[in-house]
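Try it yourself: sequence plus pyridoxal-5'-phosphate, in.
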Amino acid sequence: MPTHTTNADLFARAQRVIPGGVSSPVRAFGSVGGTPYFVARAEGPHVWDVEGRRLVDVVQSYGAIIAGHAHPAIVEAVAAAAADGTSYGAPTEREVLLAEEIRTRVPACERVRLVSSGTEATMSAIRLVRGATGRDRLVKFAGNYHGHSDGLLADAGSAVALIEADPSDPTAVPGSAGVPRGAVADTVVVPYNRVPELDDTVACVIVEPVAANMGLVPPAPGFLAGLRAECDRVGALLVFDEVITGFRLGRGGAQGRYGVTPDLSCFGKVIGGGLNVGAFGGRADLMDQMAPLGPVYQAGTLSGNPLATAAGLAALDLLDDAAYTRLEATARRLGEGLAGALGAAGLDVVVPVEGPLLGIHLAADPAVDYDTARTTDTATYARLFHALLDRGIALAPGPYEILFPGLAHDDATVDEVLAAAGDAARAVAEAGT
Ligand SMILES: *Cc1c(COP(=O)(O)O)cnc(C)c1O
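Structure, out:
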């Protein structure tokens, strides 16, 4: 890799040719300030920036990476696939294998369709539920993120918090400019962790079964089962957005962990092994309403492409029961350590841990929904972020993103993060008084 450059130089050049200098907004460090590091390469739990600096990375591509960067088995699988051609526009064996593997782990996915991103998965699932039910309204939860399609951008948590419309302005467009009022007219936003009362105009409820885009907010006991029952009562469909939880929270994702079965499930991130994949799946009678069998259209030039399916299969191959046990142990250790280190320095902090997922909530009380999630002290997060970055630890550059410890974060790496966290928290607490 060419490294005769600096982060500042590249960011300046990037801003002259790419809006904000980035290909996805949070990467611009808007909510923490400063200059983003430009990554030159990565391996295991580490990334190296273009200045040659090594960082312990707990971003892990926002959860797309679970086995550590550049895992040899995944690199090898991708390289071998690429040598045979990168896309054909014709079906391949690996698509069948990946779909079968998803169905084995998540039996409610009797049929699976592969797409190229989580956004495509949720967008297509919503079209399918509307087509199948003949109803238009969808219910989503404030602070849940389901990708960047028009109808799902209302109150969408972390990514969109930066550009949220002024809530006191009744003419404001929710989520993003450029979303026509009509596109969100059938989107009803309700508070997380409370079962809404539905009626028979509702096509579906879409939910992050563990909310992971407003910090980490686990489902309250009975919440997911309550959604299932309420959907059944009015004939609405239940859609789990498992783009983060799928194949990370456990072999069977959130539905496996909590024993609640949705009608449709959406996947992304982990199942691409770090490449561009999404998928959605569910009951055969529903999924078979997709084209070419049924009237609901959806397509993609690169859907199920050889590189992405090779990477996804190689990643899933690494995810056996022992892997999940390790992921949970790592998250627990990291979570307890972070809570201790930040708390000892005098910061108000709650570190929710749910299986292998954890968040940092800088407030005295745990978050249960979007309103309480937003009590996190964003200014302190920004200072903590930079104090950690100065000490070689990369958190996500946004207060509502979660941490993604993976199989490459061994005990020594976790210890390194915790030592830096204690030191960083003391520096932040001193500067704050
Ligand atoms: C990341 C994410 C998406 C969108 O996936 P992309 O691949 O970024 O389009 C959807 N839902 C959830 C819960 C996510 O975290």
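One thing you can check immediately is this: The two ends are 43 Å apart (CA to CA).
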